[in-house]
Amino acid sequence: MAPVLVVEDDPVIADGMARHLRDSGFDVVCVERGDIGLKRLRFETFDACVLDLMVPGVDGWRLIEEVRSDGIGVPIVVVSARGTEHDRVHALELGADDFLVKPFSMKELVARVRAAARRGVRAIEPARGEVIRVGDLVVDPRNVQAFVGDVSCELTPTEFRLLHALALESGRVVSRDELLQRVWGRRMSARDRTVDVFVRKLREKVDARSEGWSYIHTRYGVGYKLEPMPIDTSEPSAKT
């Protein structure tokens, strides 16, 4: 039986979801608080997580962010009464895999969870290897950190995994789907912007620290590549 974590503080809704998921062959664990859900996701293995955004302790937004920052690739299906376009897009940008607006059909919930669990693959830790030097950027797998010159980029574990994946393929364009599978352990869906969001964070921490080089480049419609390109510092807009 595929294990599923339900994070929902309304006992009636939680019981209904758990009953329908169990009837469909899932092994369901229910918790009422986001902080408890976060701990269980960190220390237990689930094939999917059903998450209400407005739970006490740690809210759903923060839970998604923390889980993805930790490199946990469990598929997350958000269920929420907050169904504006902004809420849906923001949840998907943070790393959620699907979004259902309350009230919803329990049959649809089961179908969405089944699809998410079928897509889900455990995130893979990067192999510890040799230091990679690209321009003045140093990617150090042993310390799970990157440095521009002697200054740490202060990357989170997930940010480092993404940078390391690009550094291993330095000079080659790596597709978003390939990066999502390598770093987060799941395949890309139509509206998944996880890779784009984390690339933006890398640029803020890596490219912005380098005086003479830009590193992370976009091949529009394809993906990203890591390649040192000198910045023309004579131009006032060179770092903008």
Task: Give a structural overview.
- By secondary structure, the protein is an alpha/beta fold.
- It has two domains: 2-119, Rossmann fold; 132-230, Winged helix-like DNA-binding domain superfamily/Winged helix DNA-binding domain (Arc Repressor Mutant, subunit A, Orthogonal Bundle).
- The chain is built from eight helices and twelve strands.
- Strands 2-1-3-4-5 form a five-stranded parallel β-sheet, with helices on both faces.
- β4 (76-80), α4 and β5 form a beta-alpha-beta unit.
- α1 (11-23) packs across α5 (106-119), α2 packs parallel to α3 and α6 (157-168) packs across α8 (194-205).
Give descriptors for this structure.
single chain; 240 residues; alpha/beta; Rossmann fold; Arc Repressor Mutant, subunit A; 2 domains; 5-stranded parallel sheet; elongated; disordered C terminus
What percent of residues adopt helix (DSSP H or I)?
25-40%
Beta-strand portion reads: 15-25%
Overall average pLDDT: 85
CATH superfamily of the largest domain: Response regulator
Q: Which residues sit in consecutive blocks of at least 5 with pLDDT less than 50?
A: 121-127, 235-240
Spatially, the strands of the biggest sheet line up as 2-1-3-4-5
| Helix and strand run | EHEHEHEHEHEEEEHEHHEE
Tally the helices: what do you get? 8
Name of the top-level CATH class of the largest domain: Alpha Beta
Give the termini separation: 52 Å
What is the strand and helix layout of this fold?
Layout: E1 2-7, H1 11-23, E2 26-31, H2 34-43, E3 48-52, H3 60-69, E4 76-80, H4 85-94, E5 98-101, H5 106-119, E6 132-134, E7 137-140, E8 145-148, E9 151-152, H6 157-168, E10 174-175, H7 176-184, H8 194-205, E11 213-219, E12 223-230
